[in-house]
Fold these 2 entries.
Entry 1:
Amino acid sequence: MASVTLEKINKVFGHTHIIKDVDLEVADGEFVVFVGPSGCGKSTLLRLIAGLESITDGDLKIADGVVNDLPPRERGVGMVFQSYALYPHMTVYENMAFGLKLAKMAKETVDDRVMATARILQLEELLHRKPKELSGGQRQRVAMGRAMAREPRILLFDEPLSNLDASLRVQMRNEISRLHHRLGSTMVYVTHDQVEAMTLADKIVVLRDGRIEQVGSPQTLYQQPATKFVAGFIGSPTMNFMPAKLLEGDADGCRITTPGLGELALPQDASGETRAAELTLGVRPEHLRLTDAQGENSFEIVNVEYLGNEVYVYLEPKAGDILLIHRSEAPSQWKIGQRVALVPDTEHVHLFDTDDQALGLATQRQVA
Amino acid sequence: MNQYQLIKLAKQLGKWALIAVVMVYAIFPFYYAVITSLKPSSELFQVDFWLSSVDFSNYIQIFTQKSFVRAIFNSIFISLSVVFIALLLGITASYALGRVRFRGRTTVMLTLLGVSMFPQVAVLSGLFEVIRTLNLYNNPGGLILSYTIFTLPFTVWVLTTFMRQLPMELEEAAIMDGATPWETIIKVFLPLMWPAMATTGLLAFIAAWNEFLFALTFTLTDDQRTVPVAIALISGGSQHELPWGPIMAASVTVTVPLVILVMIFQRRIVSGLTAGAVKG
């Protein structure tokens, strides 16, 4: 178990700058999730920590020691791969013992460690099977067991659940979470699935184009996204964005106008913005209310999705072509083709400036 | 019987007739060699397609010749050495060519492919000088060297193709487990490359076993000859007599092991050769 510190980490492949000046602290025993769209560099960052790629510039510290030039086996890291990458010709036992045997450990120690790991992951019955005789979930557990058997200081996961079907994914997500609580080891986890990120992480790192967009707890990222990108990436269904124009604003709040919704008084601090600045209003689907259409405030319902416990109502936007989404508890009275008025819950809306940075709340200015 | 059934029957007959033609074409020469080898020399020029009696005198004759028995052992030794060296070099080279990124990798691969196109005769005189300089003339080492030169491009090419198909993550898992490149090759890749190794090994063995030109050129004395040369040099009572019986007996003797080997490994050969074709 150990902390990980990244200081100004850069990675360049040929002429492509993949990772740009990443600074990050992972505390001892913390579960950190890297999340972002494909190609954002999250896997590369994980491989830099693992030692599978060389660091172009910057320092990587594990438990206060710089490990830039150490090979993976001396860094004390274990990794679970997306495709599991189990050795097909070895049994489950041999797969887990492979690293220990290479480290020239005594036979009894190897046996103890493998059995202990197998007990934690409930693999005892499967120790003599080959990987091809295992189900997807079992292979996943063996891959974790192989990474854990060497008792690494840090466990790394590279999209470990993306090869499983939906129900198994939820189950394994649960197991990984419980495993973390039980072992208390430092874990770094890469995924493109924001639900996995939200459910597993102590701390989420949102990456975009090789830069850290925002770091924070799942609650912080959901309630106070720092940028429009984070706001749109975290949360499902995604946040609604509408163009807005600043009418007037100061440190105590502002007034904006949005096509369709008309004038709104919001608690955001807009003192840094010029009058008539083009802003973006962000409202989560659950922070919208639907009422009967009134004058300008009239949106057409184009689709209604019934999910059992909730209902998603899709509305034609006034600008752009991404449909607006409203979420409410089932049952819902709304029908396709109806015209309705949208009333945002002004306590919970977000406002982004022309550079897509979020405006802080007037009362919480210092927090950001 | 209606017209439809008739056409179907005709198609069946046609198919079997075609198969029979191909079978006869492929097998008859070998079959005739076996029959000839089992006839006494007095009946040699009677044409018959079935054996009326079995006569082993030809086999007894060749196996009592010390030089022929010696040639068989020479062939076995040389062929096995070639297979071993080619696989060892092939596996290590294929790791480098298939897995390590370096400048000029494609050039090396294309050169390999180009080299394997050269006819033996083209390099014969040059190779002769090399072997003389290395003091390997009339020595199994000279043949092992020259056969390896011709086998290696194919071996490396096939093994590299196969190595590239093994998932990258498998090697990375081994690296995370603390394996050195050598340990990765021996403990992870080697067990997975069996089909490809069986294929290339067997083909290398056959090539070395049947090779004639180099074996004739680079050996001088009876005790260094390999089987193909020994067979060619079996001589009769006078220079006007070709001893067909012993020649056929010797040919059958050296072919049968190959046939058995191919039958044992045939599944492996197919899976090894098609490994590049379909993604598993």
Entry 2:
Amino acid sequence: MRKFAALLLLAAAVLGLTLYAQDAVFKVKVDMVVLSFTVTDSKGKYVNGLKYTDFRVLEDGIVQKLATFAEGNRPPVQILDDGSTKPLAIADNAAKEGELKGSSDAFVGTNVFVLFDTSNYMYRSFVYASDAIADFVRGLDKADSVAVYTFSRNLTRAADLTRDRNFAIAGLRKAVAGDDSALYNGLLLTLRDAAKVPGRKVVIVFSNGPDNGSMVAPDDVRSVAEDEGIPIYVISTAEVNKDPISSGVFRRIAGRTGGKAYFAKTWQKQVEAFESIREDLGNSYTITYYPQTNPNDGFRKIAVEIKSDAAKKLRVRARPGYRPRTS
Amino acid sequence: MRTHCTLFLTVALLSATSLQADLRKARDLELAGSIRAAEQEYKADGGIAYAEFLERRHHPGAAAAYEKLAASSDANLKRQSLRRLIVLALLEGNKQAAEGHLSKYLAAGGTNLSFSATTRPAASSGLIEIPGPIRSFSRMAALSPDLTPDELLGALARNVVTNGYQAAGNNEGLDQTEYLKLVYRYLSQAKELEKLATTNQTITIEQCDSTQTGELLKVLGYRMRGACGGDLVLETVNASRAFLTIDSGFPLSDLETALKTGKPFAYDYKPTKVPVLYGPTYWNETKEKDKPEQLFIEFFMSDPQLCRLYLGLSKLDASTAEDLKKAMPVQRLRAFSHVLDFFGGMLQIRNGKVAVPGDPRSAAVWTDLLAANPDNGPAFLEKLISKDDGWLAAYFESLSRISGPTLDYLSEPNRLRRFYLALRGKITSPGPARPVFRASTDLMLLTSRLRMEPNGKPHIPGGVENWRNLFINHPHGKYDGKLTKSAQGWKDPDDLLEALFALSRKAVDNEPLKMFLSLSDLNRGRKEPLSSATVDRMIKDWKLLGAQYAALAEMPELSEKSILQFLTAATTLNGIGDIQFRADAVGCFQALEAITQILNRNRLLTVPLDAAFEPILTQIPLAKNPRDLFDAVRASIRNLLKSAGADEKADPQIAMLGLLSGAAKGVEDDTHRVLIAEMQKVFDAQRLVSLKTIFDIDDNLEAPSNGGKTNVALVNRLSGRITDQQPPRSSLSGAERNAMAFGYWVDKHIENERKTNFRAIVDKAGTDPVKLKEARGQLTSFLRDTIVGMAYIHYAPPGAQILFTNPHFVRSHDFLGVQGSNQTWRTTEVFGTGWPSSAGGRLVGSLVSLPYALAEAEQNFLIPTREQALIWGDLVPQMIVSAKVPRYWRVTPAQLHFTSLHYRAGESILAEAALDASLRTKAIAALMRYAPPARSEAVNAYLEAGKVTDALDLVTPSEAFNMAAYMIQANEANTGSPLVAEIQRLRQALPQELSAAAISQAFGTPKPTLANSYQPQLLSLRTFPTLMGYSSRILAESWESSNIYFAALADELGMKPAELNVQIPQWTKLAVEKIFATHLEDWPALLRSLRLVGQEMRQSSKQTQQGSY
């Protein structure tokens, strides 16, 4: 029973469930932090094979006790009080209780949400973009799940989260082109969906930038991604200097959430960008922790240190922090 | 509770005489809203009462209960049960079962029921072929796949007319739009694919490595990358072709899988046969040159005027269209296609004659105006559509849409002619049907919203003199030189109406009409109309404050003195020189006005409205600085809470949220808790400071004056909330900041708040009571945000993504507007859509139309469940407003059931009418009061054929509701239906509670454009078309079916009325996400989505309750 309750709590934490009592509204912090990051050397090559004991995570300077650890698409392990580890078991009923879309192995691999711009702005490059995304989906690790969403003025869930690549590609190939572009509205809704899914997740935006329909600003959307721990990768089909404002925004939302921005006008560049993202996914570490007591209800800075890297030669790319969820 | 008891006793007493003792309990339980318990009691009896109970509740077990009784030896009971079984079977769409029951009914001695033996001749038609699957063509042509084949060409014609052509840059011709070019390109590709579909019209690929594969991929614009087998991938080689392949939904993914796996690929590529009204030959007559290679569909789309004629003729009922067609050759009809398209919907020839509005006394005038007699229908219609470039047809159509005293007045022969001559003017071109959207909006509003006094005269706000002065002095600019001159001699209401008709023809903003309708609506609910002096003042203040009159119209209890105080207050506030202070003062004033409006709408005030409003109107305008303003606002809030019966010692934040939920004091149930929790979540997401915190700090600042100490913890709490805010532009680059359109004062407001170091202010003031008192002025802008936020959260649309994501959304409300335009008192508008133009969109202007603006901002966050859904720009916000503004705390179970019964009775009467010619005549006549002639006739034809479900697909819930109400009132629905009998019983027992006004208030919708008020009401008007200047806003406001449908659904599912407070917004969201419409007036798509939601809810309720209540 205790285990079940703990699992429920975990699911609630991942989901960010809001709990209300009968007579009054209780403010409950559901605060498990999921942190994905990559480690690279001075030449930009991924550094693999590090253990959880190699890392020290600080939040506003306070050292955190890690709850789980995973490298790449390997299954996560639970870190016990005595420092030992054991495979993380997620009961099916826990997922069910939380109305999660994933199954019990949802914590294995990455849940990839592809957000494809089908607005009028993408009219000319629509089919090439579709090909590039299809290639990316085909090349994903078997453990990964993928959802394909499209947006113009509204969001469309072309293919829900699945491990069936054909299903995802079929959804992609049904996309309809045209209409205004509400990129940040669409990104927000995608993040909201991704936030409901347990485990590690990323959002990949494929767009050429302009937005003439959103009611939310990029940085408000970025805050949601930061707080939910969802890295945003952006592949822009526009040239970096053609639209400096969109380029700047793309860089900022990607960088601040632990993702990357690519500017890939040609099909070949787009394929390369997708390849780079796949590498990132396969070479990243994911840890979770419950924050130590911290009076700061505002933005909390996260720092990941590598204990063995005294010379600070290695580079960690992670989201810089988050705002604790209160409701 | 008290209401329930009254209902219970009244109806129980009335029913006592007619019910057996053992059924009384069941009846009492049912009337008290205990449906499950009632069901058990009725079931125990098992007689006809049980079956009727189930039918009233739309329970699927009703048929089985009647079946059981149909086996009875009691002949009467047998016939009664069989009759209901026939109706239920028809409502289910099972004609065969209905015929079986009918045979038994007749065998048991039943009479007066039979299916029609005659078959109505169908409209002549022929078939054309469109290459490829219809699904693909529909995707490319932006047509809903839910359209029936009969509807397809009409819908396509509409798209071609509205979206297919644009003015050519260098001449007077028309160029195809990108939309139409793509449709043509698709047809070209489809013809090529058709050639490859050699086996049984199926595209077949047996082997990956084959010539067929190469040919197919070439047409599709793709090629293979990698060899046949697992590594094969399809990639684009010809972007234009590939675009068509994807956009038309060709199963590329299936083809790729087949090629990878070596399995055969087969794709049915039969051409689609589509019916064409009157057959293709009729339309081909307009062809200038025969192009044999051209498909009919290509020829059709190439002629927008022909498309418009198709659209126009499809709006007429079949026999009228046939008569007209015989009277006029297609080429001549084509010349007036625009008139037929817009105004043909209300034209009808019956037995060779046209029924003119105001018939019979107006017939002579119509004859004279047209030089044709309505008794010669075809000739009359020919003249009508060709006269004055459509002005007379527009006039005819507007008058045909109304009935009752207004029509009686306007169709008086002299007026009929006089007003028409005013409308048409001397120069008739351009006519009202020339644009793509109809331009006769004002005419339609004037005729349908003109208010008549009990004495049969039109209501003129103030008096004719007020309007005479307006036209002569025209304080806001000259309207019309001739009218200014003629106004000198005005004496009679008709003089004014003549001027309003004359102005209705102008394409420019018709300010006098707007004023007239707004002030008429303001007077509508008042016990005493506004005096001439007040009307005069309001006319003068129109330019600045006209938009605010909608709020005053919603509060008819407000005295004339308060209205004048309101005008004075608003003008005073508008004159404040310090811009930042003006924004705070106006923001506070309007927020309090909005909260008062909400409390009054939900009948939560326990004192006269004037008393609740008084401090707002008198104290806020007197404030000279932020400190005064704070005091005035706090006093106003205290007074409002007291006026709504809140305990003086209660936490003001909790009390205010409780009131804003719309529930009366003491309501404690799950729905209420859910609503409060939702509101609190939005409040927290906006990081607003609670009223309690603000007031506590204020009290705290007073403490040293009374010998107490400042509470540091409290001050820290506020400081924490302030520093928690990130300025909206903090992380922007210089380029982004420069690209932003506006927002200086809003940014300054937020920045000032951020810079407020309350701790330092308090420290600096030390224990000096005067300085501490002054410090309260610093709280004013926070108080403004909090109360503005209260209005926002009351109207927060379902989902409320913006409010949950942009923490500055409330603070960003711009009461000043773009520099150079004073938007302070204008309607609320959405600004800053799209990036980069602002730090997220925001609302600008006053709070008077906040519900609509919030819904408009939120609409694009709804996620369509199907691709290519058309979310209607104006329809969806109004649907959200209709779901969000009304509250159901005071709705009684009897009102819910009564509304549901009417809707069901309407459908049931129509089903019965399929077997009863006399009833059918009455039902169609009643339906025609609310639905256009062509649709009513189509319903008639379906009923004659016994196709009841097809007929019901053409009837909206509000039409069924109104039709039943009308027939029952007119004693024309006495068919022995248990639904009708129950309506009569309930109405007799509870005349007040179930009056038309009470039901209108319970399940009506706000109509800010049509009725100048957010007060929910049912107007029972015909559904409006799309109108220029209003797009589909008026259409959306005339759609009253959603809440009626949801009321019936809730009643069927045994819900308490209070649950609708949460369910209706959710159901509306689901319905919107399921809409798959083709065009703005495609309300059948909306009806389908409502029904889908109904099916889902029934299914979910069934799963929860295992098939019972």
